[in-house]
Amino acid sequence: MAAPETTIQRAGATGNIKATRDDWLKLALETLISDGVERVRVLTLGQQLDVSRSSFYWYFKSRQDLLDQLLDHWRQTNTRFIVERAQRPSATVIRGVMSIFECWVDEKLFDPRLDFAIRAWARRSPTIRRALDEADEERVNAIRDMFMRHGYEEEDAFVRARVLYFMQIGYYSLELNEPMSSRLPHVAAYLRSFTGREPSRQDIEDFSRYVEKTVPRTR
User: What's the whole-model pTM score?
Assistant: First the structure.
């Protein structure tokens, strides 16, 4: 059972310094993404938060407990939202794929930096490798099932799902960093390629509005 959300305080020159469970998790997540799992250390994190190591144990049983919670956070964001978008009811397959595209647009739904931090971690840990393989399979299967609901044969649906999903993972791995203004004009062609169907003008307009509402203008 998780420890209560007690606030740890340290008296100092500027008053009480507080560190919550969310502070520990946020810093651990940032460290995992920027420096890798080996740098996620209790002592180092405590120094950065300017609290004692003992405060860590109000919230976590051990470093492994913290790592397990980071992995669960990844599952509950990157994988969950792809599956949810793939399962969303859609009038056409075009709309179904557009729902999945939302994950590639909004990093609150899918954080590519976190995904690749987990992939780097998996190269060092057979346990994380299994978790990653399971997540990739769950994501692809959810997209396959979306295609099948729209009348595609199972093998065709499976291949289309793999192309859609692994193309995007490859896009991230190449660190192309194209601005959204360069990517958006190709959305209709991507939809045709993934589905074999022609998107309507309304489809493209609706997706463009979603992007405009979601993506900061700097991207």
Answer: 0.87
